[in-house]
Amino acid sequence: MNYDVNRIFEDAAIKQITAELSKTIDSKLEQIQELQFSPYITGIDGLAKYLGIGLTLAQVMKNSKEIPYSQRGRQIWFKKSDVEKFITKNKA
């Protein structure tokens, strides 16, 4: 029997890469689902993404207390309901 060593190596590498990629995708999907159903937005970057604004503006909004938040140490939480109230109140 003749084995194509290169072909065997390629198949094993592809299977390994596919398995690692699948794990990464599953992990990211879990994170997205948790964020989607969570009643909270975490961090300034989360607020910026949620509102579709830059980090600097999100930080200014937090510092001016335009949107209520909770903080423990360096971790910050915004209630989605409070952010939605802010959006409704400040529609142009």
What does this molecule look like?
This protein is mainly alpha-helical. Helices cover 66% and strands 12% of the residues. It has four helices and three strands, in the order αβααββα. α2 crosses α3. It is elongated, with a radius of gyration of 22 Å.
Note poorly predicted spans. Answer: none
Query: How would you name the oligomeric state of the polypeptide chains in this document?
Result: single chain
Estimate the global geometry from the Cα principal axes. elongated
How do the strands line up in the largest sheet? 1-3-2
Q: In terms of structural class, how would the helical and strand content be classed? A: mainly alpha
The radius of gyration computed from the alpha-carbon positions, rounded to a whole number of angstroms, is 22 Å
Counting DSSP E segments of at least 2 residues, the number of strands comes to 3
Spatial separation of the terminal alpha carbons: 75 Å
What is the strand and helix layout of this fold?
Elements: H1 5-37, E1 40-42, H2 43-51, H3 55-63, E2 70-72, E3 75-79, H4 80-89
Antiparallel strand pairs: 1-3, 2-3
Summarize the structure.
The protein is mainly α and 92 residues long. It has helices at 5-37, 43-51, 55-63, 80-89, and strands at 40-42, 70-72, 75-79.
Provide keyphrases for this structure.
single chain; three-stranded antiparallel β-sheet; 92 residues; mainly alpha; 12% strand
